[in-house]
Every structure is written in C-alpha cells, then in structure tokens.
Amino acid sequence: MKLTEVNDQSFKEHVRPLGVTLVDFSTTWCPPCKALMPVLEELADAYGSQVSMLKVDCDDSPETASAFGVMANPTVIVFRDGEPAEKLVGLRPSGAYRAVLDRHLVPDGESSSARN
Predict the structure, then answer these.
(1) Most buried by CB count within 10 Å: which residue of 57, 59, 68, 86?
(2) Whole-number Å distance between alpha carbons of 110 and 38
(3) Which CATH number characterizes residue 84's domain?
(4) Per the record, where is site Contributes to redox potential value (predicted)?
(5) 63 occurs within a structural domain
(6) Any catalytic annotation for residue 58?
(7) Given 1, 8, 30, 85, which residue is catalytic?
(8) Do the domain assignments include residue 86?
(9) What local confidence, expressed as pLDDT, does residue 106 receive?
(10) pLDDT tens readout for residues 47-88
C-alpha cells in the first residue's frame, strides 16, 4: 500500500479528525527519506485502514512543514484525533514507528495485550 501524497492545499482534509494519521515529512533527494519509504509502506500494509498514512514533500509544501516545526528530514508526526501527538525526527527502526502507532491506537484505559 502506498502513502497518500498531500500538499499545502490538501493536507487538512486528509488528516483524520478521529483516529490516527501518520504523516511523513520528507524530500525526494534525501537518502534517509528514501530508506524510510519501504518501512512506511510495510506499516501501511500492516495497519491497513486503522491508520491513515500521508506523505508531504517539504520542498513542494513548505507552509505545512513549517506549521509543524519540521526542521530535518525525514520527520514523522503521528496525529491522534486531528492533533499532533508525537514527532519522530530522523530515520528510526521500524519498531519505533510501530510502538508509536500502537500507543495511539489503543483506546484509553485498555492495555495493548487486550487488543490481541
């Protein structure tokens, strides 16, 4: 599954008002960003409709990147119910992204083991 590409004009309409959205802020020329893409595509396949996965090209959408304080690429921001919840700056192992998504997908008051 591919990430949905969004820009300054379409960003707000694609972030889920309820639920979890992962946004990859990156550029086409950034080697760590290129290395992150297969990890995010794997996560998109694994989480399916539970998580909306978006991609913002910081060169093409500088207003959105600036609005969320993106200073380095790649930066991944996880939104919960339309609001930024966590920011991961730089390339991280797959498990780091999974841990953040799992933390925000678990309903309040329910342990992650209760989901499985």
Answers:
(1) 57
(2) 30
(3) 3.40.30.10
(4) 31-32
(5) yes
(6) no
(7) 30
(8) yes
(9) 72
(10) 999 999 999 999 999 999 999 999 999 999 999 999 999 999
